Amino acid sequence: MRNRIFFIRMTAVLVAAAIFLSGCHRWMSPRGWMPPDSRMDRASRSDRPPVRQGWPKADRAGYTVSMVGKALRIYDAKGREATVDYYNSPESVDGEWYVFIADENNDLIAHPNPDFLGEDLMGPLGVDITGYRHGEEIAGATEEGKWVDYIFLNPASGNLEYKHTWVVRHDGLIFASGWYQVLPSLALAVTKAEPAEYTVAMVDKALRYYKAHGREATVAHYNTPESVDGEWYVYIFDENDQLIAHANPDLLGQDLKEDLGLDSTGYHFGTDMLTATEEGLWVHYVFVNPATGAEQTKHSWTVRHDGLLIGSGWYE
To answer: 280, 25 in Cβ contact below 8 A?
Structure first.
């Protein structure tokens, strides 16, 4: 089973960076690659359409909700064992739509892919290739239901795609189904050979990490060597413009408005960086490249989020 998950992830290596927001530079605002009507932050509210039978597949969100509603009706009418048996059968699959069920311990007990049965939503299966822990979000569903958006394998196409999942907790169990969206960015294998796109992807990954894990965990993560990717690393400034996360721990606590934000040419890039908004901002200045130890021109993409400045950059 672990090998199956590993294989799925390995087949995505060529597109993983693109999923991080490779297409944002080309087809939408670089702040984030999630469609405006399905951003991850909607997972906190219940905005489902009413459940009805005969919902058209053209309304993919409505059809998804109706799939979960049908599963709940089967459960209430026939009980747990019959419901689990049905949703472990190929007959329960409707194209890209299928229902999966997790038990009181967040372990999968029904899924059309038998390799996933017994897997914990809190384990590797619940983390997509961008590092987003969607399993934790799914496990947090209530009877009101919630949307959770992440990257997952579409069994109908055999490709990794953006999945919009409707999740409801009922009688202690989790019932969920989702629909898939092919993004233009999935066709673009962004690599470090495209440094601007790769930089935006690094920042978007940090934003997703923040949304999934919160401020304290995000700051802690981006203060570790493991978060550094060659010349790429994420920096974070707090509401007082103090540096709270950086690859160089000697810089922590310094103020962007002061010497830290002044490069060797006399350019006070910190002043410009502080004007960044949620839409993001490029700032170009001279800074030490930790990968080479030399001063180089740095191109930084910075986004303001939840009062913080979160950014990354590439050197030349």
So the answer is: no
Strand-pair category, 234-237 with 243-245: antiparallel
- Please tell me the distance from the alpha carbon of residue 155 to that of residue 104, in angstroms, as a whole number: 26
Q: According to the model, what pLDDT value does residue 53 have?
A: 53
* Amino acid 196: pLDDT: 87
Give the whole-angstrom CA distance, residue 257 versus residue 143. Answer: 48
CA angle 69, 74, 80 (to 5 degrees): 115
- CB burial class (10 A; 0-12, 13-18, 19+) of residue 224? exposed
In angstroms, the first-to-last Cα distance of the chain is 43
Q: How far apart, in Å, are the Cα atoms of 85 and each of 12, 50, 81, 140, 245?
A: 31, 27, 6, 24, 49
Long-range CB contacts (within 8 A, 24+) of 238-244: 238/307, 238/308, 239/307, 239/308, 241/270, 241/274, 241/309, 244/219
Q: Is 205 left (phi over 0), alpha (psi -120 to 50) or beta?
A: alpha
pTM exceeds 0.70: no
**113 vs 93: CA distance, rounded Å:** 10
**pLDDT, mean of residues 196-224:** 88
Are 198 and 17 in contact by the 8 Å Cβ rule? The answer is: yes
Distances (CA, A) of 90 to 99, 113, 125: 11, 9, 21
- Longest CA–CA span in the chain (Å) reads 74
Segment 212-232 mean pLDDT: 90
3-state SS assignment for residue 288 = strand
Residue range 120-145, pLDDT digits in tens:
999 999 988 777 889 999 999 999 99
d(CA 246, CA 145): 38
